[in-house]
Amino acid sequence: MISILIPTKDYNCCTLVRALHEQVEKLQQPCEIIVAEDGSSSEGLALNESLNRLPHCRIITQKNNIGRAKIRNLLAKEAKYPYLLFIDSDAIVENNTFLNKYIEALGKNRVVCGGLYHADKQPDENCSLRYRYEKKADKRRSAKIRNKQPYNNFTTFNFAIEKGLFLSILFNEQITRYGHEDTLFGYVLREKGVKIRHIDNALLHSGLESNCVYLRKVEESIETLVEIGDEINDTPLLSMANKIERMHLTNIMATMWKACNRMLKSNLLSKKPSITLLNIYKLGYFCYLNRK
Q1: Is 107 a member of any domain?
Q2: Nearest Cα to 4, choosing from 78, 62, 70?
Q3: Which of 67, 112, 218, 254 is the S-S candidate for 291 at Cβ 3.0 to 4.6 Å?
Q4: Measured distance CA(289)–CA(59) in Å, rounded
Q5: Three-state secondary structure call for residue 39
């Protein structure tokens, strides 16, 4: 019934896959688990090699990294069951009814999002920026809150969808850098009138990057948003940038970002970064790029 699809690159996802496999073995319905190595090194491939020996599980390998959108589209085309469950490789299953909850929800919905959460304790002081951002966002991640804005809260981290529906849309392969392939996918679902159902079936997100790596990802996602901004119109950052533009303050915001970005970065890369300053940094960088 379900094909569980896990894209990865140089990441050990054995714990995740074995936890899912244990639940698959107990189901009364057919399932498969497909792991896609997207340009992993030989050392990275060795991390997950043992998964090929698990029943119902197989690994497909791309020698070159083809990106977040293409690898997910490839996984969907490889899947043999009518429902697809996409899970990021840095997820951890702590709920022994995880798959059962999805099976129950998919009987009534075409797209289901399970959600994510983060550990109560910060795992490493060097990942303080991502951790603080995510823990603040966790307060708004209950299914009740997500269902108030189902499309804006769509994420690829942990979601299920009818295979036929997914193949009729696919992730936009023009997005080759980090960020917003899920934003655009959610927007297309809304345009097509397809309902998204959010449920409380969250996975623990364990793969927190260092402050430096995460800030670069933030910048890359903003660069992507500038490129695709004409195709979507209602992300929080776009909404704020549009307000700034209506007030004719875009040039001022861009100039301020150019003058202050090093000072802002100093805080964001520290052990105690400010999420308020992160939001200012994001808005300023967007205005700076948009002006250019």
Answers
A1: yes
A2: 78
A3: 254
A4: 39
A5: coil
